[in-house]
Write a structure and sequence with these properties.
Ribosomal Protein S4 Delta 41, Chain A, domain 1, Structural Genomics Hypothetical 15.5 Kd Protein In mrcA-pckA Intergenic Region, Chain A, 3 domains, 5-stranded antiparallel sheet, 8 helices, 5 strands, globular
Amino acid sequence: MSRYLGPACRLCRREGVKLMLKGTRCESAKCPMERQWRQNPPGMHAWRRGRTSGYAVRLREKQKVKRYYGVLESQFMLYFRRAERSAANTGTALLSLLERRLDNVVCKLGFAPSRRAARAMVGHGHIYVNGRRLDRPGYLVRQGDRVSVKPSDRSRQTARIWVEAMSGRVAQPWLQFDAERLEATVASLPTRDDVQIPVEEQLIVEMCSR
């Protein structure tokens, strides 16, 4: 399976916004985005930002969302086509689908420090959905699904360490989390207000509808 293996902070610098790709490091002073000279786009020399075309503005919004959720172009377009077929607003439906990814849910619950770590946790079989092991990070959770950690000492100890470290994160209203049992229930589907990255989804719709 194809995936990005390059430097994560380079992606944040290119988009000009924190994508939270390194978990707790992104919330500390060690984050390169906190240093003024590193806020320039990546490259050997800090090039001057010229006049941005309409196409470039739309492309950057799409790339920002792809990199935030850790999906590739083909995966992203599958989500977009599915959102187009829904009765809801296409942009809102697209973000809701991405929020429902299992790796994103695991990250939001605090079982892992980042989506990349959450993807590895799911792939290694540490996450159960409705009592059954599920190793597909792209699985879309449904209302009523129960997400829990594998009932083994090693899995639960690792998850509990990160839950305690991430205790300061904002709770997700669409996820009912039980920290003692390391279990959460999808109370409702995520809405546009639950998306924590600043994005103008209408620009993405205009970009992908061409």
